[in-house]
Fold this sequence. Notes:
The chain is an all-alpha fold. The chain has one domain. It has helices at residues 12-24, 29-44, 46-60, 74-77. Helix 1 (12-24) packs across helix 2.
Amino acid sequence: MKKRNLTVSLPYVLVCKAKEMAVREDRSLNDYVRKAIEEKIDRSSGYARARERQLACLKKGLALGTKGRSPLARDDLHERK
């Protein structure tokens, strides 16, 4: 990935807090800020919405035609000898 330098002017307190967070996560400040920007973009993009839709489908589950009931007993499914 091609990189480009960027000069940003931020309030002193914000920079200090960002440095503290980066240290806690064992990351550089540069990496911490880059990741924060990426996460913000992902949240506002279609990727985030699609991910949420798919997670909701997983939680809901699929209709398998059993209406929540198992046609066989557990012992019938797992034959023990």
